[in-house]
């Protein structure tokens, strides 16, 4: 639910086009629709949850409960109406009034997992500007989202653990069909570094805790973690 506020803040500070103009492509797509791809059709046939939601079932499935097939055109006039409201009335229309009331009602009415979202939660929501989180990797500085996001910390740890490795030597190899594919050694090194990074992420990173960002991205600490990567899978990594 924070996306609209975030986009509105970005538009206020950096936007060049009128707010309403930005919605036109999405409105057109919602009204004219798109064709279900073979991949989406396969996913719909396997998904165990969508059919349990009345709105999703009406959108993705036939009246008899079978999923709509590849080649079927899906349109979403309800989404188009929402987007037209936001385009004309601005971001506040998402956080107060009929749209907000409908979202709260939907969350509370879920048959198996009702939530506690309130009208006050939506009405009081504000987008926050945060300083980016940056780390060094060889000659580059890489920046991304800070906490409470966890992605940049994980990337910083992975890069840090692999910094001493000659990754440039592990160039992609030619596959059987002529396509380039990552070498097995490169995949192994990345997978093990990611395994360690996510073990730390699960232990130390959450929304409402004091995350030890400096320690997690410390070069010496990451060098120690990197030494745990051997020639075979470590199995379950420990934080």
Give a count of the beta strands, DSSP E runs of length 2 or more.
6
Secondary structural class: mainly alpha
Main sheet specs: 2 strands, antiparallel
**Order of strands side by side in the largest beta sheet?**
1-2
Radius of gyration: 23 Å
Helical residue percent band? 40-55%
Average pLDDT:
94
Please give the alpha-carbon distance between the first and last residues.
32 Å
Order of H and E elements: HHEHHEHHHHEEHEEHHH
Supply database-style keywords.
239 residues, mainly alpha, two-stranded antiparallel sheet, two-stranded antiparallel ribbon, 12 helices, 48% helix
What does this structure look like?
The protein is mostly helical and 239 residues long. The protein contains 12 helices and 6 strands. The protein has helices spanning 3-14, 24-32, 38-46, 54-60, 77-89, 92-95, 98-108, 119-123, 151-162, 184-204, 213-216, 219-226; strands at 34-35, 73-74, 133-137, 140-144, 173-174, 180-181. The strands form 3 sheets. Strands 1-2 form a two-stranded antiparallel sheet. Helix 2 runs antiparallel to helix 5 and helix 9 crosses helix 10 (184-204).
Give a brief outline of the structure.
By secondary structure, the protein is mainly α. The protein is built from 12 helices and 6 strands.
List the SSEs and their pairings:
Layout: H1 3-14, H2 24-32, E1 34-35, H3 38-46, H4 54-60, E2 73-74, H5 77-89, H6 92-95, H7 98-108, H8 119-123, E3 133-137, E4 140-144, H9 151-162, E5 173-174, E6 180-181, H10 184-204, H11 213-216, H12 219-226
Antiparallel strand pairs: 1-2, 3-4, 5-6
Helix pairs in contact: 2-5, 9-10, 9-12
